[in-house]
Write a structure and sequence with these properties.
Layout (H helix, E strand, L loop, with lengths): L8 H9 L21 E2 L8 E4 L2 E5 L16 E5 L3 E4 L5 H9 L25 H15 L3 E3 L2 H9 L15 H4 L37 E8 L17 E8 L15 E5 L7 E3 L1 E4 L2
Parallel strand pairs: 7-10
Antiparallel strand pairs: 1-2, 2-5, 3-4, 5-11, 6-11, 7-8, 8-9
Bound molecules: calcium ion (2 copies).
């Protein structure tokens, strides 16, 4: 199915596969050589990445936050003492298609619900599908790509804020910063389903659509509280590992469900029309 929208497009991908893109694997930047906030791609069809400086933040929500759930506690201090790179955007259909065309994604062609938007976030991909994608990226670039840990995800979502959303405490900021479910939103954001990546304003770390558009798989096994959660940014490898944590809310959910502390979960093999992923890359 042809898709339109921002990005290289299916025709461009085919051209690369046919050898017309001589610099397919050309490195266009290197995370290790970049300052925090610097952006790079490891190949022409690789996702745009931004270098994130480590730091400390308080994970979870206060009991006074409207709409919060008990699984967002106990609040705890997390210190990430390393740099890493995070995807500037959610992985798009075009980026998934590059992997599939190169034989790296099990020939899985996720259904796009007929929306026909290559620059929109890929949907209908399971956690296991996301693992296959990051393994392909790692194999082909020689770098370590992976999903964000849940702690890293909240760190880059908050981008230095402690408010319910990264735009502040007012739901009304949603239409500038995020694609949410229109029926319950305080405004019309212009998108009934997924929006092309980067259609809304970024947060302070330069990341787009962290809140809203699609839920994003994280690396972590599901646990229904932060009791005994790691405090160093690492992934949680204990708990219910057949269920994985997803974050950020989506085009289907109310703005209150887009909060930075909001947590979601589903079986690792499930594919949903409002669930995709964002990648991370380790910087040594
Ligand atoms: Ca919307
Ligand atoms: Ca998102």
């Amino acid at each position: 199915m042809a898709r339109t929208g921002a990005g290289i497009g299916v025709d461009g991908l085919v051209a690369f596969v046919l050898g017309l893109g001589a610099n397919f694997w050309a490195v266009t930047g290197t995370g290790a050589a970049q300052e925090a906030g610097g952006q790079f791609r490891d190949c022409e069809v690789c996702p745009e990445m931004v270098v994130v400086r480590g730091g400390s933040f308080t994970m979870g929500s206060p009991s006074t936050e409207v709409g919060r759930y008990d699984d967002e506690e106990p609040r705890h201090r997390v210190t990430i003492d390393y740099e890493f790179a995070a995807g500037v955007y959610e992985i798009t259909f075009d980026e998934w298609d590059a992997c599939a065309l190169m034989g790296g994604c099990r020939n899985h062609s996720p259904r796009d619900s007929g929306w026909g938007c290559g620059g929109c976030p890929v949907i209908s991909v399971s956690w296991e599908d996301a693992q296959v994608y990051v393994e392909w990226l790692s194999r082909t670039t020689g770098e370590h790509y992976r999903l964000l840990t849940e702690a890293e995800w909240e760190y880059v979502a908050r981008a230095g804020t402690q408010t319910a959303w990264y735009w502040g405490e007012a739901e009304s900021g949603q239409c500038r910063y995020a694609n949410a479910g229109d029926t319950s939103a305080p405004c019309s954001d212009g998108y009934q389903n997924t929006a092309p990546a980067g259609s809304f304003e970024p947060n302070a770390f330069g990341l787009y659509d962290v809140l809203g558009n699609v839920w994003e798989w994280t690396a972590d096994c599901w646990n229904d509280s932060y009791s005994d959660a790691p405090n160093d940014g690492s992934e949680r490898q204990t708990g219910n590992c057949s269920v994985r944590t997803a974050r950020g809310g989506s085009w289907l959910t109310a703005p209150s469900t887009l909060r930075s502390a909001q947590r979601g979960r589903t079986h690792a093999g499930n594919r949903h029309t409002d669930l995709g992923f964002r990648v991370a890359r380790t910087i040594n």
